[in-house]
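Hi R.,

Here's the input for the S-adenosylmethionine complex you asked about:
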Amino acid sequence: MDKYDLLSDKASCFMNPNQIDENLEKALKLSKDSLYIKDIITKAYDKKGLSPIEATALLLNQDENVTSSILDIAQKLKQEFYGNRIVLFAPLYLSNYCINSCTYCPYHIDNKTMPRKKMSQEEIIKEVIALQDMGHKRLALELGEDPVHNPIEYVLESIDTIYGIRHKSGVIRRVNVNIAATTIENYKKLHDAKIGTYILFQETYNKKNYEQLHPKGPKSDYAYHTEAMDRAIKGGLEDVGLGVLFGLHNYAYEFMGLLMHADHLEKTYKAGPHTISVPRLKPASTIDISSFKNALPDDIFLKIIALLRISVPYTGLIISTRETSQIRTKALELGISQISGGSKTSVGGYSSKIEPDNAQFEISDNRTLDEIVYWLMENNHIPSFCTSCYGNNRQGVEFMDLCKSQQIAKFCTPNAILTLKEYLDNYASPKTKQKGEAFLKKELAKLNIIKQKEIENRISIQKNTNEVKFF
Ligand code: SAM
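And here is the predicted structure with S-adenosylmethionine in place:
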């Protein structure tokens, strides 16, 4: 077997199974050493991040006082690095054709009851207009893997279509993409198509379990899947998004794997993951989730979010509508920086009156985007439709450097205010608009007078041009 090598681009080296086991053993031992835990808590306050072993030792520690310190530090770091803005996006399912056999996903090839659907470009335009009418500016494209129905040319054509749609006062400003692991050449094409983040969930870092969960199809190749981010970066994609599907394997193993992966990207390419998503397994057609024995309880889920915030302070954390509004409310305090809102997981779900019977999984937060915007403000978060980093070359290493030096909030807060104003003027219900105008005044007043004037000036230009003047 290959030896562990953090800087190698081979999964058998940077995600070496023996090394994961060894790290877990160390972390478990250290989790019981109260002096060590105390030191790590002190280190966490330094805001420089934690190593995978340090973070996992905290995760495995059972002391309630330690947990409450972790939650407290996460809240502080969240505020200091990102301020109180929360970025909003929506998933857009283009096609559910899939030739893989993921045993947890209803798109699996053997599911003959799932109606298959691939949207035409005309249908995509209708879906995107429906999303724009809600107020969305940032989308995440979702597709099953199928070289015949969903070749890269289809993905590229769809991205082009989406960026080209001009509807009322809006355009989609950032298209992120979640497609199966592919070649460097295809990643180059996605880069040239100007996508935002390339997102790919690892599902599980445990190789043996991964192979059982993906018995056939191209996704069954653990190494090819795990090395995807290395290829994406080599293809020019600077922002990559990691994630595991919690519930498939032991959570401590997944947490260790996730942080080892982040560490590998950071040390090898000088920029860690742009985002980490924390999906949990959900009920879905033909999927009996009670047969998966690793369900992640809410309290540990929230501790994991807090520990991710502390361990990789420079990485955006994403929570989807797989979670209830109650869990999302708590998660936002602990470090989440991006959420989806008003989501549908079906192909064609936004523009059709009755949702098509092809949803990928059940959603637990069914509120409209307007309700989500209202709720965020009620909880003192600025709903943000900002896509400025992407347009201003603050990506990859540049973004990380700004984030590490705590400079990013200087852009995030004013841009969140500008885009919230854009939302209120063009898309909000009267109730949300009324709340929003008062909320914006309060948020503006927190800034220094020069910044306030600058923002007010940009808002008046924005009103005339219908275009946000980002910082
Ligand atoms: N085809 C791409 C791939 O293979 O990575 C995109 C897959 S899918 C559209 C996006 C994600 O949905 C998957 O990576 C998986 O983690 C998640 N997913 C699949 N089944 C799920 C379920 N039952 N509950 C929650 N999430 C699920």
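One thing worth noting: The mean pLDDT is 95.

Cheers,
M.
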